[in-house]
Amino acid sequence: MKHPISLTICLLFCLSVLCQEDGWTLSSGKVEKYTGIVAANGRIGILPEDKPFQTRSIILNNVYDKESPLGVSKILLGMNFAQLELEINGEKVDENNVSNWSQSLNMKTAGFTTSFTFKNKAKVSYTIYALRNIQYSGYIDVHVEPLEDIEIKATGIIETPDEYHSPNSTFRVLQDLETTMPILQTVAESRLGRHLVGTSATFIWHAINSTRENQRPELVHDMVTPYDNRLSFEKELKKGETFEFAWTGAVCSTQDFEDPQTESERFVIFNLLTPREDLLGQHRKLWEELWEGDIIIEGNLQDQLDVRLALYHLYAFSRGDSNLSIAPMGLSSQNYNGHIFWDTELWMFPPLLMLNQDIARSLVNYRSDRLGKAKEKAINFGYKGAMFPWESDDTGEEATPAWALTGTFEHHITADVAIAFWNYYRVTQNMDWLKGRGYPMMKEVADYWVSRSTKNEDGSYSIKNVVGANEFAPNVDDNAFTNGSAITALQYATEAAKAVGEVANPEWNEVASKIRILKFPDGTTKEHADYDGERIKQADVNLLTYPLDVVNDEETVLKDLKYYEPKLAEEGPAMGQSVFAVIYARLGNAKEAYRLFRRSYEPNKRPPFGALAEAATSDNPYFATGAGGMLQVVLFGFGGLDIGEEGIIQKNAILPKEWKSLTLKGVGPERKTYTVK
């Protein structure tokens, strides 16, 4: 039986969302329960609110400070430059004096638009962009249409979170010859002083030469407190005279810049002096290029929107030019401290590998850039090779809180990384990358698993004292997924050695061929040595079928499916259902595959736009890991895609009766199109 919260949320969602027929836009009026959709560009994420001109937060990718003096690292909130206030005839516009409220996300252009009417005096709309082209900056494009003669006052704000200290808030007008550039700015130290963060912002008026002081409205600076820095202007508007302006800001830190203060100024000046058509045109062009990798579902608009929203988030949370990875919640929140888990390699990486190899390369490069720390960790725990952290931050050291056993014992992450590396090579056939980054890392991972395995009296090998994918069972021996992923990583290392012309360590194959996969008497795969039918947090055994292909005879595959699906806990994360759905699709059972596809995300949708929470019973969107899982069902299940030695192949595609057709567009380096009807 579905949890009551899930039913309530689903009803609210169905009542609130207006799904436009283009398959690209999600829209909503005012709702009681609200979860915004982030506008992000792989560097910053801007999360809107359901109140006029307000945003909840800005998240900075790969910028960390300790959460507390005795805590671990935590991703930083940026100074919130995406806050505005608008007064009309001396009255502040707020949620209590507006009507005709509407918000929409255009996934094609990554613009989040809010529109409303203020007391029959003016129609107002604004669109938030996290600029894809100017990656540390955002842009709010505002339109005011007076329904009578009015006076407006617009105020732009840099709001510094309380966790910062020693903020220095200023306003200066920079000048080069006749060009003047007004800059509102705050510079402050992060929580425990690890980083200096600089944020700048300014207004832009499109209809006039904004660089000449005598042609623009007078600007007034007001520093309410060092944490609340404001810049405003006033203007009279005639009925029917549409007025357009923008507010743009940039946030930089010492993680990426030696002088973040000055760099944030340069980004804002670039946005100020670049025509809107050019600036936003470049942003839209980059998103158009991202959407060359797309999934098109004909015959079911809601499924199309759900799938596009998942893919939108993976694109929004990543960049092909960054060598950064994606946290479970992307750039939507500080949940899980913004750390990097196996969520990337097992769940988000495969869809991106199919549809955007540039981003996929950034994800694997993030790991190879931190190989040195992984080797140090292996030595520190008495092993050889490289041992990757369960939770990773910018340093590559273990970032899991010490109280969580996962950080000390969930070791399958090290195999997951190697599996992603080999799949990247198989898809791209990039030999230079394999020689320079891929094989050196895979070799160290293979050496780790040899040293991590224990030889039994019968000649088999065990991997003892681990936390598996099913984290309900800590400190167990011979966990199915851990053992299966280690086998796969060892086998892939041998193949990689051959590909680069090296001689593989014979121990890799010896250990891989003798690591134990335990069975119950009836042949069902046993999750770990002491497993006796307990509830599971997520799929573990079934991962040996997909994606590992370690268990592949149909009789055992079906036994494992029927045994473990009923044991999946409702409070577990969404990905387990996705695994079951892919396997059923590959077995040719479209009915069961579609049932589990919908079950993998439908109970997790939060109104009004369908943001995914981690579980049906939780409220922590946006869960990018779940998005990766549902996309894998479409690509590797219904779409029949698979990765072979020569790259991407298609076999045994199957279409659920709820869809008329499925088109996978821009697949692989050759940008192929696959259609299932």
TrEMBL record:
Coiled coil: none
Pfam families with a match to the protein in the record: Glyco_hydro_65m, Glyco_hydro_65N
Keyword entries, A-Z: Hydrolase
Lineage summary: Bacteria, Pseudomonadati, Bacteroidota, Flavobacteriia, Flavobacteriales
The Glycoside hydrolase family 65 central catalytic domain, residue ranges: 308-503, 534-601
Name of this protein: Glycoside hydrolase family 65 protein
An MF annotation (GO) of this entry: glycosyltransferase activity
Domain Glycoside hydrolase family 65 N-terminal: 40-253
UniProt keyword Calcium, yes or no: no
Residues spanning the signal sequence: none
GO biological-process terms attached to the record: carbohydrate metabolic process
